[in-house]
């Protein structure tokens, strides 16, 4: 598997971030900074899973639920100094993930116990080939957050 689709999806997110001028998030929704921090934290989990596959080790992937982890997201944003810092961090994590994906070869088809929730539209609680999880990340998860960022632009 090559990371082209994943890189394009990240590129669209970065284009939305670069467009800037984000307003305040409506009550109960994530701010632009929290969205980017969520993507960073999720990338770290995907990196761990991909590294485990490359090492031939089993791994379970649990996508971070946004609402449960807001204090951790806020801490990451504060630690990185705001949107610019978490965006720089996301550039790094997304590059690392894509580079690892490019190395996977046939291991990309290894089933990984996967737990995803994208609102009510997508719920996964079963082993999936890692290629399928990566595809969902590129086609569903990243575009969802790109749309959220777009809606926050003032």
Question: What is the structure about, briefly put?
Answer:
With 154 residues, the chain is an alpha+beta fold.
Q: Could you explain how this protein is built, in words?
A:
It is a single chain. The chain is an alpha+beta fold. The protein has one domain (4-152): dinb family like domain (Four Helix Bundle (Hemerythrin (Met), subunit A)), CATH 1.20.120.450. It is built from five helices and three strands, in the order ααβααββα. It has a three-stranded mixed beta sheet, covered by helices on one side. β2 and β3 form a beta hairpin. α1 (4-19) packs antiparallel against α4, α2 (32-55) packs parallel to α4 (83-103) and α2 (32-55) runs antiparallel to α5.
For this structure, what is the CATH class? Mainly Alpha
Uncertain regions spanning at least 5 consecutive residues: none
CATH topology: Four Helix Bundle (Hemerythrin (Met), subunit A)
**Secondary-structure class:** alpha+beta
Task: Count the E strands.
Answer: 3
**Shape summary:** globular
Work out the strand percent: 5-15%
Write out the CATH superfamily name.
dinb family like domain
**How is the largest sheet built, in terms of strand order?**
1-2-3
Radius of gyration: 15 Å
Order of helices and strands: HHEHHEEH
Q: Main β-sheet: number of strands, strand sense, barrel status?
A: 3 strands, mixed
| Separation of the first and last Cα atoms | 38 Å
Per CATH, the architecture is Up-down Bundle
The number of distinct structural domains comes to 1
Portion of residues in helices?
Answer: 55-70%
């Amino acid at each position: 598997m090559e990371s082209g689709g994943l890189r394009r999806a990240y590129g669209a997110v970065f284009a939305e971030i670069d467009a800037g001028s984000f307003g305040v998030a409506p009550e109960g929704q994530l701010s632009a900074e929290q969205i980017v921090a969520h993507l960073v934290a999720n990338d770290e989990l995907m990196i761990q899973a991909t590294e485990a596959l490359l090492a031939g080790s089993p791994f379970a992937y649990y996508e971070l639920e946004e609402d449960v982890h807001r204090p951790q997201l806020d801490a990451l944003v504060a630690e990185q100094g705001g949107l610019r810092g978490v965006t720089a961090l996301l550039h790094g994590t997304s590059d690392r993930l894509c580079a690892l994906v490019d190395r996977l070869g046939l291991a990309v088809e290894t089933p990984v116990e996967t737990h995803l929730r994208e609102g009510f539209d997508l719920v996964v609680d079963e082993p999936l080939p890692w290629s399928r999880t990566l595809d969902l990340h590129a086609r569903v998860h990243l575009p969802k957050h790109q749309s959220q960022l777009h809606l926050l632009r003032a």
